[in-house]
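Weekly structure sync, notes
Attendees: PL (lead), two postdocs, one rotation student
Agenda item 3: pending single-chain targets
PL asked that the sequence for the first pending target be pasted directly into the notes so everyone works from the same version. It is reproduced below exactly as submitted, 119 residues in total.
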Amino acid sequence: MASQSFKDRNLLAVIGDEDTVTGLLLAGIGHISEQQKKNFLVVDAKTQVPMIEAAFEEFTERTDIAILLINQHIAEKIRPTVDKYQQAFPALLEIPSKDHPYDPNKDSILKRVQKLFGE
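Predicted structure, written out during the meeting:
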């Protein structure tokens, strides 16, 4: 029965800056459901933290999303929420953006893996 629930997870979701989201939408990940729910959120300087957290919660609770991509500098804005997330699905990946390079010391998933291996 568990594999039944995972087979419907066929979407990527993204929370990112305009360049990241635009690039991924051009690559074909964009989806708007019949209920007008999008699988992406463009974050700019005007986007408030509660809106980012609400999108994160919505995307992690949806049963049709397999992977959630989030720019690392945006994940920093909601770090307690990101660190609290423990589920396997959707998988959470922090990615760099054009203006903000990836810092492995800030990645919560990488920290968890290092802790498992005793590093």
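Discussion points:
- The chain has a mean pLDDT of 89.
- The two ends are 36 Å apart (CA to CA).
Action: rotation student to compare against the earlier draft before next sync.
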